[in-house]
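_Backbone structure tokens_
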Amino acid sequence: MSEFVPVMEFEDFLEENGKIVDQVVYLQPYKEGWTKEYVLKYDHRECIDGSRFYKNENDVWRGWFFSFNEVRAKNFECLSVQGDSDILKKIIMNEYSGK
């Protein structure tokens, strides 16, 4: 992958930047499940399993992010997604690039 884009291991990122990340986007299915037709879509929604995540410690999100207990996030949101990797690319480019 490093042939195409800059790559950094998450452990190295934490060493360089500390244990607080700017944004966590939790990908989840649609609560109502799939419809009869396959439609590429996404929506910012209330967390289905939101009780696992809570605000704590001076207004930062605490949870088990990226398999790390000690990582905190300044911002946290849930995103219901139905689609393929191309829809994820569009979401990142349209909503999160430059943040």
Summary: The helical segments are 10-17, 85-96.
